[in-house]
Every structure is written in C-alpha cells, then in structure tokens.
Write a structure and sequence with these properties.
With 330 residues, this protein is α/β, with parallel strands linked by helices. Helix content is 39%, strand content 17%. It contains eleven helices and 13 strands. The strands form four sheets. The protein has a seven-stranded parallel β-sheet with strand order 3-2-1-4-5-6-11, sandwiched between helices. A two-stranded parallel ribbon has the order 7-10. Helix 1 packs parallel to helix 2 and helix 1 crosses helix 8. The protein is globular. 47% of the residues are buried. The structure holds uridine-5'-diphosphate.
C-alpha cells in the first residue's frame, strides 16, 4: 500500500494534539478524515488543516451514532486514531457524564468501525490511569491508584474503560489495537483558556496577571513538547507486533510546578506576581513516565529541549492572545 492510498480517520483531529498529528499525516500524503465536535479545539487549528486538499472535516460527537459520511464510505479506513476527549481537568469536569461517555461509548463506536473496516486502531489513553501514583516513575505495568468516585474519575475511569474495550477487541481478534498513555503535553495549538498549567502560566505571565499556583507548587509533572508526542503516536500506530501492551508517551524530565513557573518568568524577563490557591481534590503529587518501552519499540524519545519548547509555546500564545511576542525573544 503506497502512503497516498491510505485513508485515516482521526477523531479529535481539530484538538491540540490531534491537529499536530493530522498535519504529520497530511504531509506524508495520507488522506485524512477528521471527526471532531469542536468542544475544545480552536478554529485556527482547523483552518491550518483545511489548506490541505487531502483533508476532510466532519463535525460530529462520537457519543452519538456516527454520521453516515463516516460509516457508509465506499472506501474503508486503514487506520483510526482516537484522540477525542477534553483533557484539561476544568474542561473534562464541566460535563463529567459526557467525558465518560466520550471515552467509553465513543471508543466502542470507533472500535466497531475499525472492526468493520479492518482498520488498525490507536487509542490515546493517559497517565491519569495511574491516578495519584505510589510507584515512581510510572511503568506501564503499574496498575495505578485511581479514585473511582472523585472529580477526576470521569476522565481517569473513562480512559481505563476505553483501554479495557480496546484490549478486549484485540484479544478476541476483532481489531488490531495500539494504546498510548500520554503524559502532560504542551505546545502551540493549545487553547489559552484550556485551564492547564502551561497555558495558564504562560498566558498569565504574558498579560501581566498574577500567576496561579495550586497548592505550594511542589507537585511534579513531566512536560513533553507536542510535536514529539504526535510523532510518537504515528510511530506507535505503524509498529508491528506489539501485543496487548500500552505504551507510555511522555518526557521523563520531571519538574515541580514552581520550577515551571520560575522558568517561564525568567524567560519572559519581567517580574511577575504569584498567587497560591488551594490544591484541587485528587491532584496527583508527582508524575514521570518510564519510557523504556517506547524507546525500545518505537526508537523514540522526546527531542525538543524544554526551553526551546517553552519559547515556541510562548510565542504562539503571545500571537493568539494579542500580547507582544518580543517579550519572548530572550
Ligand atoms: N496547576 C497550577 N496552576 C494552574 C493550573 C494547574 O498550579 O493554573 C497545577 C495543577 O494543580 C497540577 C499541575 O499544575 O498539579 C498540572 O495541572 P494540569 O491541569 O496542567 O494537568 P494535570 O496533570 O493535573 O492533568
């Protein structure tokens, strides 16, 4: 099969990571159909993609029956990526029932489509399946410490159920599946109002507003630049003979939230005020991926240095929110 003969469905393709993945696939010559409900995407993400003639957009929500433009195609899909779900805590907690159904009903529908098409299916799962981890760094065989009743459960448990569905389809020979557990990711195409730490801190710093640190800022995360993440997903989809194994995708460089804030402020070169507010319920204390499996299977590891990634992200946000991009020229 030549690359240009391939038809690929990307659910959530207008979103933050999805839009970068679509661009990689489109530039490789694949035909890409993006299905997205536009819940958390920016119109600029979509307009970047509609410039490609091999791109098609279908507005739909994967919790509803899939539209006939997708299910009744004369050509069948070769690959189906599922990146559809709000991923920022305030966004996914705003409608928790919809969040859970997006992962469970949406993934089931896309798996059935993969079965009917003979497509290979990739689920984007999350480091949230490890909850507030007792094991550190997190390896794929760690079973996690997740609350099934707390405010994050709609996302965490939805993704855990989606993984179960994907591996059951694979186990029973109904579809070939790949499962990526994506850790914190940042970069251009994030929504400035997304509510996650990188977008909040950069936009607050750029616009001269106090920077919000939840808790004392000693909690850790490990931030991966979005183009590194998107490339890992493409490689994971194409790797052969992976078995029933999820793969962590993230950057093992761990830092505290406070260190992230200090870096952004230092790079911006302006004094900034910090405001501490209460740590949200069930906020994981620390998070760092073990990426040995991704390195071995995909010959992949993140290549974008944090400062380069933060600088590119600052410039992008400066443009998006209309602040002076020269402040990020250091
Ligand atoms: N956080 C923060 N200030 C913000 C947004 C988030 O201190 O304005 C903290 C949050 O409590 C968490 C970490 O930053 O400890 C990462 O939060 P984010 O929402 O980006 O992602 P999470 O990894 O929690 O899903």
């Amino acid at each position: 099969m030549s690359r240009s003969d391939r038809l690929i469905l990307v659910a959530g393709g207008a979103g933050f990571i999805g839009s970068h993945l679509c661009r990689i696939l489109l530039e490789a010559g694949d035909q890409v159909v993006c299905v997205d409900n536009l819940q958390t995407s920016r119109s600029s993400n979509l307009s970047m993609l509609t410039k490609y003639e091999n791109f098609e957009f279908v507005q739909a929500d994967i919790t509803a029956p899939l539209p006939s433009t997708i299910t009744s195609r004369t050509r069948q899909f070769d690959r189906i990526y599922n990146l559809a779900c709000a991923a920022s805590p305030p966004r996914y907690q705003a409608d928790p029932e919809h969040t859970m159904l997006t992962s469970v009903v949406g993934t089931d529908q896309l798996l059935r489509l993969a079965e009917a098409s003979g497509a290979r299916f990739l689920l984007t799962s999350t480091s949230e399946v490890y909850g507030d981890p007792e094991a550190h760094p997190q390896r794929e065989d760690y079973r996690g410490n997740v609350s099934c009743t707390g405010p994050r459960a709609c996302y965490d448990e939805g993704k855990r159920a989606a993984e179960t569905l994907a591996f059951d389809f694979a186990r029973s020979g109904r579809a070939e599946v790949r499962v990526a557990r994506i850790f914190n990711t940042y970069g251009p195409n994030m929504d400035p109002d997304d509510g996650r730490v990188v977008s909040n801190v950069i936009c607050q710093a750029l616009s001269g507003n106090p920077i919000t640190i939840y808790g004392d800022g000693s909690q850790t995360r490990s931030f991966c630049y979005v183009t590194d993440t998107a490339e890992a997903l493409r490689r994971l989809m194409e790797v052969e003979e992976i078995g029933l194994e999820p793969v962590n995708i993230g950057n093992p460089h761990e830092m505290t939230v406070r260190e992230l804030v200090d870096l952004v402020v230092e790079m911006l070169g302006r004094p900034a005020q910090v405001r501490n507010s209460p740590l949200p319920e069930d906020d994981p204390r620390r998070r760092r991926p073990d990426i040995a499996r991704a390195k071995a299977l995909l010959d992949w590891e993140p290549s974008t240095p944090l400062e380069d990634g933060i600088r590119a992200t600052m410039n992008w946000f400066a443009h998006e929110i209309g602040e002076d991009p020269r402040v990020t020229a250091t």
